[in-house]
């Protein structure tokens, strides 16, 4: 037989096992699900051991454990590191789900359930590819390390630090991450860039206690006004961030890359309609895809403080906090930008207030060369399995771990997701298109054969 034939013959069982994993409500952000998160980790651990891999749970202080497995039997052979996550997003509003989020339900070819696509279905697909080799041929075509974390949906705080300290344990030649989508149904894509994220909290303090605006308005500093002025001053009317040297490290995408984006089935009119906006207010001189993928930006997410309840209260609050983040692109560095941001914010502070910036999360952007050998191999295999040439795209969002693979392990990552753009990630009625599950498994099998020793 072959690994592919094995996978074909065990399709139904694979889906049943995935359902078992989906029934575990491993919501990482909610303390009441802590035991469930652990249960999902233990279930995967037992599953990987059952396949004959050496596996362990790696505890993270104050966090959810990493599931780590390996099979290193080819001395001198190449080593791949597979990454995924077993934690899921909360399910609210639960009343909008057609079937219960943790009771996986098949409707047509789609399996509904929280985590079906993000990321349990995809990471389990990788595991089933490994099983197909191990059960059919008794060995894998290359050395394999598997890293499945339980904190991706809360920003991967634990694993990012862990990687820094355990780079040798997870040393590899290249990495593979399946935690994403095709560009469109029938159009697979390989991701060649991710933006970084610098997330901050800006606290503005005025008087030592709340004041009455009738008695003190005009004489006392107002932190709400002050924070609004700070946010307003961080971007100009043309959509440019005003922080000095903010753009100095930004690398322009190549002409070739830009031309390939222009060939994508993306219409700006459709995008504006989908968002329900008349125009895009972003940086002038750049297409919408460039603004979302290759340009850095800055957004405020909320301001807490003062009076926001019903009716009026004439308060000048003592303190206000705003959440402000920046999406970063190569070769910007979160650390450098944080310092420049702090300086700019204190310059924008009006007289009489004190300002403090706290960093809540920071991750660097990453670029992956489309000509790297494992990416090229993926391109060929995706074409064979999906019947279409994959397009090379970037993503506006961040997967912090991929930046670590780039900066700490110094290896390229193949980013191939086999969900669909309408899988309802993080939303009610998340689903996974099962034909994609099986094609995903086949893709991983053929890729391993191609980059391995066979
Ligand atoms: Zn995910």
From TrEMBL:
Pfam families: M20_dimer, Peptidase_M20. The keyword NAD does not apply. Keywords: Hydrolase, Metal-binding, Protease. It comes from the Bacteria. GO terms for molecular function: metal ion binding; peptidase activity. GO terms for biological process: proteolysis. Residues 193-351 form the Peptidase M20 dimerisation domain. The keyword Transferase does not apply. This is Dipeptidase. It comes from Candidatus Segetimicrobium genomatis.
